[in-house]
Amino acid sequence: MKEYNHKDIEGKWQKIWADNKAFHAENDSDKPKYFLMVEFPYPSGEGLHVGHPRSYTALDIVARKRRLEGYNVLYPMGWDAFGLPTENYAIKHKMNPKDVTKRNVAHFKHQLTSLGLSFDWDREINTTDPEYYKWTQWIFIQLFKKGLAYKKEMNINWCPSCKIGLANEEVIQGHCERCGHTVEHRVKTQWMLAITKYADRLIDDLDTVDFIERVKTQQVNWIGRSHGMELDFDIDEVDDKLKVYTTRPDTIFGVSYMVISPEHPLIEKYKDIIKNIDEVHEYQNKAKLKSDFERTELVKEKTGVKIDGLTAINPANGEKIAIYVSDYVLMTYGTGAIMAVPGHDQRDYDFAKAFGEEIKEVISGGDISKEAYTDTQKGILVNSDFLNGLSVDEAKKKIIKYFEDKKVGVVKTNYKLRDWVFSRQRYWGEPIPMVYCEKCGWVPLNEEDLPLTLPDVEAYEPTDTGESPLAKIDSFVNTTCPHCGGPAKRETDTMPNWAGSSWYFLRYTDPKCSTAPASMDALKYWMPVDWYNGGMEHTTLHLLYSRFWNKFLYDIGVVPTSEPYQKRTSHGMLLAQDGEKMSKSRGNVINTDDIVEEYGADTLRVFEMFMGDYEKVAMWSETGIQGSRKFLERVYRLMDILNDDENYSKDLEQDFHITIKKVSEDFENLKFNTAVAKLMELLNKITSKGSITRKELKTYITLLYPIAPHITEEINEMVGFDTELYKSTWPSFDEDKTIIKTIEIPVQFNGKVRYTVEIDRDASEDEVKEKVYSHELFEKSKQGKNIVKEIYVKNKIFTVVIK
Ligand code: ANZ
Ligand code: ZN
């Protein structure tokens, strides 16, 4: 028979699917809807590498299966195309970022198509398309109108190499996420989005969605909600108070000193009273050079200066306490000041050790001589006056009431989450649709004047002053105020690259809508996204941002659901053959084009799903890809042993039912590797039997179709089955027929397993005993002794006690 030749097959079927609009989703349909989404890529110059298809193929499998199950499936794709790499590339090659993007998108699209992914290309979107970013700008204006977009002088993270301000999320251990350069602090006026106003809902509503646990945990930790108290300590020398934030007011009797952050305003306010102000100033200057990460690292030497001239008074017992300035306390969290409890907080403990401050135990049950035990929720209060003998929870309640009554403290919830810095001083992003008028202040553009398009410019290099390149274009900057008509200036910052992706899922439902981000009808039909798969690296950025935007749009009546995604899963990263991350600089990147050319898209798809547990890290392997190719070649040869029978054969019927069940369930649970393994196992049984019925072949290729759609469509056509696989139905199984009728159970003598017997499931004890006794090893195992007892645990084990 004919040899398997992927080159003939794959292009042919891609054309048939496209010509027939096989994967087109209609907005109205009698079928139930299913909306699947993978993270749309940034179309970089390098093109697709083999890491991309891991996510795309997985949900393509689900999409193809859902269609066969009778759903109206939406599986769309688009381009998240604003951003730095394109801009930098364009600058370097003296090109326009628009043209670079166009070229990259064409390349990416060609590559995705060659992988046989079943996207509905009629719904392709591009965040750099003015008809798209018109709505990104429109959403910004709505945020502004509700007071959720505001301008603020910010101490920002500045990357001197990229010449760009970075969000906290983009600073990795004090370094720029992109280029690795050390991040500096600079003061800039920035647009901010008040995501913190949504912090509680972003945590609490996680209970209403089906996200994998590690995603939920990371989001909760990132938002970092903490319940505590703001507490005032009187200052002895002046008529003023020092306010601290503490989650452990119950440890008040264990306070042995106070710490304020180097940026704390108290220092400037009392510089005439502080006797060692020069020393304090010097310390402040040193702290400026460190990143927050360096400052708060647990394992680092604690530094600081004791403030000479200011003393605090403990509100619970009137004790006088020293105040230090130290950089392990941040100005950006809580009140920028703490009460230090070295007996029960690790950093305070380290500091106390270094500065000779007292370490008091106020909660029993920990060993403070070794190291402090943080946040001990168990234990009993000791050395704590009227709190003695209480549990931590009881003590907290009592002391909170005590401080509230004395009017020195209020309960307070704090968050680690910061508002979102929403300006970039770069060219290749959405212009912010705001105008500054001397008379009216910041005024949004009229909505009918959107989109505000990026002007075509000659030079768009970032400036050393940190101003946006747009600031140099007078014709862009100078405008009239939409409010009073007077002269005004446009905002010249652009939006950060997370803007366009914060609402793109909505646009897929209605990509050409000209009156709203998407029409309410389309949104009501499709939203929420039923299943969204993406990288863990987007959990704290994109996933949080887009949930925030969706919630905001829900609040103003633009979208119908409060959460955008019903289910969120994530894939493990794909490493190169050398076990390292694939990267251009290492030269270990494998391009999909090469694999598709040599082995075919189906082989690549099978391998990507078979290489290991989908949720764990996996490694590229040349032998792995060859193994997948061999598997498909053997599937192709099934046609050689096809007979005319239209039913399952007696020998294989049970295997087919079991395989259908297993593959169906595995596809739903991200267990693609075991689904492939099961199909390989069945293939082995079929080939050793030497023949396959028509019914069996149809079932087999239908099960394999979502993973390897081209070869299966081809086989389907060659043997003359009536409809194409993309139009057929998913095979069903009979639960009864999946139950294995015979099982093996171990037989043990005095606790040692000597042999096993094969029995019919649920066989009676007598039947089992009969098998145990007639086994050839029975006499030997008995060792001539007497049987004193026999115990049979049904379908599990037979135990013989001998003496
Ligand atoms: C006394 C205490 C005793 C504390 C104890 C902890 C344990 P979370 O849970 O992360 O909110 N803290 C407050 N503001 C700070 C700042 N600006 N920089 C550094 N540390 C700060 O942490 C709250 C705790 O972190 C607060 O409760 C405070 O120390 C410290 F056994 O107060 B605690
Ligand atoms: Zn005005």
UniProtKB/TrEMBL annotation:
It is found in: Cytoplasm. Keywords: Aminoacyl-tRNA synthetase, ATP-binding, Cytoplasm, Ligase, Nucleotide-binding, Protein biosynthesis. CDD domains: Anticodon_Ia_Leu_BEm, LeuRS_core. Residues 652-766 form the Methionyl/Valyl/Leucyl/Isoleucyl-tRNA synthetase anticodon-binding domain. It is an enzyme of class 6 (ligase). Residues 416-608 form the Aminoacyl-tRNA synthetase class Ia domain. ATP binds at residue 584. This is Leucine--tRNA ligase. It comes from Fenollaria massiliensis.
